[in-house]
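Reviewers of the previous submission asked for a worked example of the structure-prediction workflow described in the proposal, so we include one complete record here. The input consisted solely of the amino acid sequence. No template or homolog information was supplied to the procedure at any stage.
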Amino acid sequence: VLARAGHGSRREIEAKIEAGRVSVDGKIATLGDRVEIVPGLKIRIDGHLISVKESAEQICRVLAYYKPEGELCTRNDPEGRPTVFD
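From that input alone, the workflow returned the following structure tokens.
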């Protein structure tokens, strides 16, 4: 929930939870806790109240692409080789 809301990567959020820096409704969170987004939910990181909104229904799109040999699966190649994003 916190990673999707933009408060860090999943690994960063996991580290904060393991360090006891995240609380849900006044209770220290532990890894694996499930949170249902409901009105009045209070999530805090380092004591700061975090705003988390219920995510809207998103359309899932799957893209199939035939990657030719020699094309790289990276956003940027410092050597200038062709990528799937070119």
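Residues 10-18 form the longest helix (9 residues). We consider this example representative of the routine output the project will generate in years two and three.
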